[in-house]
Specification:
Layout (H helix, E strand, L loop, with lengths): L1 H34 L11 E6 L2 E6 L12 H20 L2 E7 L2 H4 L2 E9 L10 H4 L14 H10 L4 E5 L4 H17 L2 H9 L1 E2 L2 H7 L3 E2 L6 H10 L3 H9 L2 H14 L3 E7 L5 H17 L3 E4 L2 H12 L9 H17 L7 E8 L19
Parallel strand pairs: 6-7
Antiparallel strand pairs: 1-2, 2-4, 3-4, 5-8, 8-10, 9-10
């Protein structure tokens, strides 16, 4: 009889261990599902996961060699944003996350390892914002984000990072910088073709591939969509730029900055910690979302400047050399005036108030990312 009882107890204990393991795996996958809602340049979703019991290896996909992905900085920022989502979801689901991060020199494509263990749940106010967060490209209303909120947000961020916020007056200066950088980007065939490779004109195809953007996601309007479709071939866009369309598009982008409430520059104290920068970028964005504030990354000035700092002057047509020099001079003056740590600069947003997007960017299923 005792042997039978011991056998039953052993089966129950084994069943509890198995159920606990299954439950942990389910929770880990829920965290990864939250993770892949993170933003990425042109929605390329540059991450892969290897699940080993309670441990997950996080790998970056290095295939993005685009002009804006300066030494994989954009990829690392996206991967950092993913990790922030995972950690928030872990606390929400009752998982403790012990994380190590690595540079490319240390471990190649492996950028993080997290060991998960079960613990008490901690309600996370930002959890619901992970799926609500969006890159809102609409024109914003005239309503101004309170300076008190921005100061409070700045204090909430980690002591390891800085968030630099421009004033309403300074938007005019950064607006001119955005105008110049947009004109320069429109001159490059590689930037044009990379962007259009990720804009999907066919909704059925977009739903199938689930990377990049449906054209409606860009909020370009009827005329803007016609222009995007017409200028999809570089040969046409090149002609349009020479006819002055580059200036018109640049001014429109400048206007979107000037009509926002604020523009925000994010800098990091350790310029090599792009993962940390990505985590803080995501927390910043989620806090804005929770407050009902919309945001759009305006990356051209930052990544063009970083490209110049790291690789020297990019290749442009001679007609644009003066524009490039003017851009660099204005950015240098602006950064100095606002005490922006240029080597630690990693992101620029415009923020304000607007309706939510009707067409959101898509994500691939988690299974697509499992190694």
């Amino acid at each position: 009889m005792k042997a039978s009882v011991d056998c039953t107890r052993e089966k129950i204990e084994r069943s509890e261990v198995i159920n606990k393991g299954v439950n942990l795996e389910v929770k880990i996958k829920e965290c990864l599902e939250a993770g892949i809602a993170a933003p990425s340049g042109d929605n390329v979703q540059p991450w892969r996961f290897l699940i080993k019991g309670n441990q997950v290896e996080f790998h970056r996909d290095p295939k993005d060699k685009s002009f804006f992905n300066v030494n994989q900085r954009a990829t690392y920022l996206s991967c950092g944003a993913l990790l922030e989502n995972v950690i928030i979801a872990g606390k929400h689901n009752g998982l403790k996350s012990e994380m190590q991060t690595f540079s490319a020199e240390e471990r190649g494509t492996l950028f993080a390892i997290i060991d998960f263990s079960e613990t008490e749940k901690e309600p996370q106010p930002l959890m619901d914002c992970i799926l609500k967060r969006e890159a809102n490209r609409k024109m914003y209303s005239k309503e101004i984000v309170p300076d008190s909120f921005l100061e409070r947000l700045k204090q909430q961020l980690s002591d390891e990072y800085n968030v630099d916020l421009t004033s309403t007056y300074e938007k005019k200066e950064i607006g001119e910088i955005v105008f110049l950088s947009t004109r320069l980007m429109l001159e490059r065939q590689d930037v044009h073709e990379y962007l259009h490779a990720h804009i999907h004109l066919d909704d059925e195809y977009a739903e199938k591939i689930r990377t990049g953007f449906k054209i409606k996601n860009l909020e370009a309007g009827f005329v803007g969509e016609l222009f995007l479709k017409f200028t999809r071939p570089w040969s046409r866009m090149k002609v349009m730029v020479k006819l002055g369309m580059g200036r018109a598009i640049g001014r429109f982008t400048e206007q979107s900055v000037n009509k926002s409430s604020h523009t925000c520059f994010l800098t990091i104290k350790d310029p090599s910690d792009h993962i940390g920068g990505g985590r803080e970028m995501q927390r910043f964005w989620l806090e804005l979302t929770m407050a009902g504030i919309v945001a759009q990354p305006v990356t051209a000035p930052v990544f063009l400047y970083l490209r110049a700092m790291e690789d020297g002057k990019p290749v442009f047509d001679k007609l644009y050399h003066k524009i490039y020099d003017k851009f660099m001079d204005k950015f240098d003056v602006f950064a100095k005036k606002n005490s922006i740590q240029k080597d630690g600069l990693f992101m620029h947003f415009r923020i304000g108030y607007s309706d939510s997007l009707k067409t959101r960017s898509l994500r691939q299923d988690l299974d697509k990312f499992l190694m």
